[in-house]
Write a structure and sequence with these properties.
Two copies of one chain form a homodimer.
Chain A: E1 6-10, H1 16-23, E2 29-32, H2 56-68, E3 71-73, H3 83-86, E4 92-94, H4 101-106, E5 115-117, H5 124-139, H6 142-150, E6 166-170, H7 174-185, E7 189-194, E8 206-209, H8 213-216, E9 222-225, H9 239-244, E10 250-253, H10 262-270, E11 276-279, E12 299-301, H11 312-329
Pfam families (chains A, B): 2-Hacid_dh_C (PF02826)
Protein name (chains A, B): Putative oxidoreductase
Organism (chains A, B): Rhodococcus wratislaviensis NBRC 100605
Chain lengths: 344, 344
């Protein structure tokens, strides 16, 4: 008796060689991929893209592809909130983002009889790179060097260094760990903050739990937010927490905007109490028009694009192919399974 | 019979605790230190400082300190070219800079019956940090992010990354090696260029010699100059060499300005052929007033200050104390002995 086929629907744009890698990884896999029915990517590895108007015929084709899918690579771009009715056979969705919690809530998939795996880890390298680019920018006084060049000033002087500082990293997952690893290359010590107690160990010199964060803020020359947005982390870094940081501290947000009180942050930056902020995310995105962050010269602001690197799709597909093998053999848990209770 | 005393003259400003470390490292050492006779440092670890007018009495005191010195920490700030006559007992000078070649020529000390040790290595950490700050600045598109914030533009888009690039590092000494080490943390491969053949090995993925550099330029996404200025390296990176680099390459100079043809570099930057330059040194210092580099937005320009970090004096004294131990015991060669033939 032949093995049953597994219908894999690729629901966001992928390069052809990556589609072929998925199709070729097991003879039981039957890949459905119709890029002409998907949003047009605005860059390599854009998983949102510009939505298309589908004709009635195209609509029917997409609907029938959804109906037969056992596995989806990314969520349905049209009506994700109807996933359960549209795709009755669906067992598993491989998301293409690390922080899928908000999507899953929005799509009404919480506690669905469905496995969702996230792309956690895929973005660790580019996000940690961005963090270091921003941290070094301020730690090495690049704003001053740029201003001096523009005003044609040559003045030899003392410069500050990154080595010897201490970082507190809230969220000791893959993004936080990779950031800690890079910081340690520069002789920066890293304390990790996790939801549940765990022993210290590379790349973290020490570990604490989220509820004890207040004790550790006064020594955090660099505060890195790399956790998921949950009920526990929303507003975690408020006015009081920012005030507890040492003078001249740097704040990095790689997680989600609402984890930090953005008004309090903007204030501490404008008075010079904090040296700089490195933000890939903001409370509302796009950043609201009247935000003082637009004019803050000590802010590096990225429009939630720091992980949008050309290598992203290849890494998501690496993860997906590994997970497909596990899914088909059934003898190992899928990597990055979304935990509906924890919310990440 | 008691051991003879060794008269150590500290000839540039040092913090008191560091002076005491030197004085305390061996009972035979007699330290002379009169900060009131030395140039006033403009920052921590400034070894040039603002010269003082000495009274006749002060002049005599300084002259007699020079006369009895067996060892000097830094060169005489007043008449280094008269060192041999002023300090007839002098056997060794510990310099406080890594590139002492030009000073030694200027002071007429070449082939003097004198040992000079450099501070090579002391500046490796801060210079490599500066290199990475500048490389990440361009590799991660920070100029575009800064401009977008200033024009209040939020546009999600693809971003470039550092990982996966290749660097060619001309000068595989301590500064080049530390830069390679940091680049490798970011998954950048590093080829090293040395004067004489040597086997590849961490932190270099490959090694070549200075005369074969042309073969390696076309694959150098990042060109780092971290060698000494000698007859062999003056003008080493000319117009032709810059033209051989790939489009969008980055150029970093941590060595000395005259190693690169600065006009050709400015031209390649202004046309956008090269993505950016990260310069701690320029052909003439201060940079000449009509240099196009002042207005080049893709240049990070440091006024030869990237190594001027507060931790510098402590590291030079670590080295000096180690060398004093070797000098007194006589059973090991001094570290960083200046090679008058090689010129570094």
């Amino acid at each position: 008796m032949p093995d049953p086929c597994v219908d894999v629907l690729i629901a966001s744009y992928l390069e052809q060689d990556l589609v072929e890698r998925i199709a070729g990884c097991d003879p039981r896999i039957r890949v459905s991929y119709a890029p002409e029915l998907l949003p047009l990517p605005r860059w390599h590895s854009d998983h949102v893209g510009v939505p298309r108007e589908l004709t009635a015929g195209e609509h029917d084709r997409w609907t029938s592809m959804l109906r037969t899918a056992d596995v989806m690579f990314d969520f349905d771009w049209r009506h994700p909130e109807r996933t359960l009715e549209q795709s009755p056979k669906l067992k598993w969705i491989q998301a293409t983002s690390a922080g899928a919690g908000q999507l899953i809530d929005k799509f009404g998939l919480s506690r669905a009889p469905l496995t969702v795996t996230t792309a956690a880890g895929v973005h660790a390298d580019p996000l940690a790179e961005f963090a270091l680019a921003g941290i070094l920018h301020f730690a090495r006084g690049l704003p001053r060097l740029i201003a001096a060049r523009q005003s044609r000033t040559w003045r030899k002087q003392e410069t500050t260094e990154l080595a010897g500082r201490h970082a507190l990293i809230v969220g000791a997952g893959k993004i936080g760990s990779r950031t800690a690893e890079l910081l340690r290359c520069f002789s920066v010590t890293a304390g990790g903050v996790a939801r549940n107690p765990r022993p210290a160990g590379a790349p973290f010199d020490s570990m604490t739990t989220t509820d004890r964060i207040a004790e550790h803020l006064p020594t955090a020359d660099i505060l890195v937010i790399s956790c998921a947005l949950t009920d526990d982390t929303r507003g975690l870094i408020g006015r009081r927490e920012l005030a507890a940081l040492p003078d001249g501290a740097l704040v990095v947000n790689l997680g989600r905007g609402p984890i930090i009180d953005e008004d309090a942050l903007a204030e501490a930056l404008s008075t010079g109490r904090l040296d700089g902020a490195v933000l890939d995310v903001t409370s509302t995105e796009p950043l609201r028009e009247d935000s003082p962050l637009w004019t803050a010269d000590n802010v590096i602001l990225s429009p939630h694009s720091a992980a949008n690197v050309p290598s992203e799709n290849g890494k998501v597909v690496d993860l997906f192919v590994e997970n497909l093998g596990r899914f088909l053999s059934g003898d190992a848990a899928l990597l990055n399974e979304f935990d509906f209770d924890a919310g990440y």
